[in-house]
Amino acid sequence: MPLIIDAVLILQALLGAFDNLWHHEWQARLPQQRGARKELALHAAREALYGALFFGLAWWAWHGWFAVVVMAVLAAEIVITLADFLEEDRTRKLPPFERWLHAVLTASYGLYVGLMAPVLLRWVAEPSALVTAGRGTVSWLLTAFAVGVWAWSLRNVWAVRRLGREAPPSGLPAPRGADAVLVTGGTGFVGRALVLHLRTQGRRVIVLTRDARQARLQFDAGVALVESLDDIAPDTRIAGIVHLAGARVLGRPWTRARRLQLIESRTRLCEDLRRLACRLEQRPQVLVAASAVGYYGVPDAQLECDEQTPPMPEVFQSELCAAAEQGARRLQAVGLRVVRLRFGLVLGREDGAYPMQAMAARWGLGARLGDGRQPMPWVHRDDAVGLITWALQHDDVRGAVNAVAPDRCDQTRFTQALAGSFGRRAWLRVPAWPLRLLAGEMSTLLLDGQVVLPRRALEGGYRFRHVGLEDALRALRSPAACRPWKDAKGETTF
């Protein structure tokens, strides 16, 4: 087979892998989106066929009627891709770069089909047989691609089945004219669970989202969706605001531009919320804003941080959280009670840090990072939602609240407990120096931590559903059906 054909196929594989990882996994987070089941099913089918194509063409020439099989696979890829384009347009708003990349992938696939056409016609004229045609390194590279896309196909099949088992979004009918709760970041990991919980209470909910089409597939009719706060009419009755939106901190390097983006993603929206509160005829009562334990910086491992502990200057994660909280505090000036929840590592099955770590632990690849003694404050997602609800409905709660479980642990204990929940042992160790070299200051999120006490929550009567780490990990391993959260007085309404 001509080298140019192999080169185009390899390029197609690399571009497709990038599209999967960057857009489908990192940006759109499709495996966590209930409305993406059909798109994921299409991806799984396409990847299974690509795997067959890579492997089949790596080692054999398909003569006679066998060439018709290759033609059928190429044609099926086109049909599935067209169906995928229609499904994407129906369910989500694609960013410009993803649309551009899809155009490039379409063009490169068309080029590949055009180059393969003379080869296939020549093969059809031959007697039917599978003829060995290995090409050394190229064949092994295509085989590696085949294994990769087949694994990805199985993973998408698993995601489709898991999303199909999730209960459809539902809630009690919201009272007509009832005050709503506005949630930013409502399609995120914690926000999605919060919105569904509020709906089970019969609350009206407004979700600010960048993609209303994708969000509509996740929530029931009791959830109003807006893509801009300007779409909210002045006479809208909003009792409280939950601000969870913000660019993901762990991921892209903390360049100067990235740091500015992380800060602005949190503070700019706070200013928009302040303007919204000012123009509403009836102002909201409360703002619950998400912050993080990174507020305390990188303190000595023996220091116990409560809500009175100050931030740490010249440590970016501390500066980021302080800037976000300062933006939230500006709404106090317009009459809102402001609660700033400083979250630890939020554990949940669908997203966040738990799924990837659980997969590694299940395969016996749990690892201690550095010396493993860095504190690791955590909270189960049930309690993350519970603390938000508690902060909304208790008028005496204001200011900073540490949203972490009472049970302290370090990274070694967390890794061992996670591995133990799957009947495995954590025996690997990753030295600190390569992480610090590769990630720079961002490595502090993995290699340094804070001992954080949930003093305000405990003193205010909040009852944690998951107090101990082992209990929380068992619940994640075998989750029970979602139960309505109740506070110390047994109340569920806000």
TrEMBL record:
Alphabetized SUPFAM superfamilies for the sequence: NAD(P)-binding Rossmann-fold domains
UniProt key word Transmembrane helix: yes
Transmembrane segments: 65-86, 107-125, 137-154
Domain NAD-dependent epimerase/dehydratase: 181-396
DUF1731 domain mapped to chain residues: 430-476
Lineage: superkingdom: Bacteria
Key words of the record: Membrane, Transmembrane, Transmembrane helix
NCBIfam families documented for this protein: yfcH
Family as reported in the entry's similarity comment: Belongs to the NAD(P)-dependent epimerase/dehydratase family. SDR39U1 subfamily.
Protein name per Swiss-Prot or TrEMBL: TIGR01777 family oxidoreductase
Organism whose genome encodes this protein: Caldimonas mangrovi
Source taxonomy: Bacteria, Pseudomonadati, Pseudomonadota, Betaproteobacteria, Burkholderiales
